[in-house]
Amino acid sequence: MSTYNGKCHCGNVEWSAKLEKDQQGHILCHCDTCKYLSGGTSTLNQIIPKSALSITKGGNNLGKYTYYGESGKAVNCYYCPNCTCHVYHHQMVMGDDTIILRTGLLAEGINGTLKPAAEIFGKARLPWQKEVAQTFETLPPS
Ligand SMILES: [Zn+2]
Ligand SMILES: [Zn+2]
């Protein structure tokens, strides 16, 4: 297990996350929601226990955006209200204790040390974007 530190663009929010060995990589999500929320081709994520994330600065002021996923259950997105960087998402369908961390905002995400581990919703990957890791059409079989 290693500790990774992240911060938002404006610096009002900072956090640290403990990642197990098998969590030390990005899961690229190509779904359309991720395209909208990031303004990019995909998002960089990892599924971690809620207890593995600690918001060390600005945690009381996070903004929250809620949308409803394909399951019909809420997805709560927590972001810096000043610069709008998304810190993590909580998908209700995954239970109370599991969150989706935006690994792209960790220092190792910004500098490229963390590598792609898998790609999900590959069916929505933009046709000009190269495959960089094992790709699942939607989600991996559970
Ligand atoms: Zn910010
Ligand atoms: Zn997505």
TrEMBL record:
Residues 4-129 form the CENP-V/GFA domain. Keywords: Lyase, Metal-binding, Zinc. GO terms for molecular function: carbon-sulfur lyase activity; metal ion binding. It comes from the Eukaryota. PANTHER family: DUF636 DOMAIN PROTEIN (AFU_ORTHOLOGUE AFUA_1G03180), GFA DOMAIN-CONTAINING PROTEIN. Belongs to the Gfa family. This is CENP-V/GFA domain-containing protein. It comes from Polyplosphaeria fusca.
